[in-house]
Amino acid sequence: MKRRFILYSSLFFITTSYAQMSEFRPGLVADGVNYALPRTGVQADVTAQKVVYTPGEFAKYAERYLHVQNVEPEASVSWKILNMDIYQFGEPDTLKYYTVKMKDKSVAPMAQLTDNGVLVSINTKVNVPTYTLPKPTSTNHKLDGKKHFTAEILAAASTSKMAELAAQEIFDIRESKNAIRRGQVESMPKDGASLKIVLSELDEQENALMQLFVGYRDTMTVSESYSIVPDADVEKDVLFRFSRKLGFVDADDLAGEPYYISIRDQHTVPMPTEQEAKKRKINGIVYNMPSTASVRIFNTASTVYDKDLPFGQFGTIDVLSSTLFGKDATTMVTFNPATGGLVQISK
Do 26 and 36 form a contact (C-beta atoms < 8 A)? Predict the structure, then answer.
């Protein structure tokens, strides 16, 4: 969610009214400043790793000629979840639009809103955290072993013979590296830098030839984002599905294992009666008093996230008196952009 800061500074008296607008227009308007209180959502940014195994051309000869056991002869693809970041965000609550009315000869407060019009602060500026998905990453470990084939390997009459000769070439390279390290070759590199270059080239040849037997694995990471804005308690809704063979799949694709989310309001804020709500005077800055809800994300095997979090839509509202923002006042107030709750008030 974009969170550029919009700052509005104008002469207005702090009397807030419910904005009966057919279309919400956040920010400075002719008769005041429109703002919204948020509904709270939960977002899960999930990062997964894909591993692609490519077997070597001589995989079935790895144990015979190189004594390397358990080499996989078939290509495979596997996925696993690496990380899951959980955070909250706010979106404008269509039932909680308000207008701060202007009035001459009054203090000039500064209202900070997000791009979608959620009130963030008054008379001060705060930095709202932003969340971005990690960029995809990938590796490319494929080496061309055949470019290191000798004439004898190329002339071999069978795959088995080619594998045997390639294995012998690997052993010869290893012997050459050992001899260089011991100083037992006639033409030793003249200095340390030259020695590193020679050994690096031999390592590259050995690794390329080894890939023909043991194959190689490439990895890539992919991140997906899943969110929910509850209107009421949520009981075991499918947040996303994930397959160890296919990665992220659609929520209705039974090939993926479901990851569920449950959200249960703990009713930590006393709710006003209907009569109390009717008597309430909206004469100031309206803000949310969030109620705490338990949030649990889990699959059939385990719970991956379990925490109590505040939600604006599960609570009620309260009002900061207009006297806090009179002509000579410098009251500074900050609100949680995800919940609309009061964070700090100071002078």
Answer: yes
Sort 64 into a burial class: Cβ within 10 Å, 0-12 / 13-18 / 19+.
middle
Number of neighbours of residue 10 by Cβ within 10 angstroms? 14
The one-letter amino acid code at 66 reads L
**What domain range includes position 144?**
53-79+139-219
12 located within any domain: no
Structural element, H or E, at residue 155: none
Residue positions counted in the chain:
347
pLDDT digits (tens, 9 = 90+) for 160-216: 999 999 999 999 999 999 988 887 777 777 777 888 899 999 999 999 999 999 999
**Residue 323 belongs to a domain:** no
Question: Distance between CA atoms of 240 and 252, rounded to whole angstroms?
Answer: 9
The CA–CA distances, whole Å, from 192 to 107, 186, 206 equal 74, 16, 21
Buried b (16+ CB within 10 A) or exposed e, 249-262: beeeeeebebbbbb
- Closest residue by Cα to residue 260 from 221, 299, 290: 299
pLDDT digits (tens, 9 = 90+) for 31-45: 678 899 999 999 999
As beta bridge partners, residue 119 has: 113
In a domain, 62, yes or no: yes
Q: Is 90 within a domain?
A: no
- For the entire predicted model, the pTM comes to 0.83
Report how far residue 5's alpha carbon sits from residue 180's, in angstroms, rounded to the nearest whole number.
63
Task: Name, in order, each residue with C-beta under 8 angstroms of 233's C-beta and a sequence gap of 6 or more.
Answer: 263, 264, 265, 293
151: part of which helix (H) or strand (E)?
helix 151-154
Structural domains of the chain, count: 1
Helix, strand or coil, per DSSP, at residue 296: strand
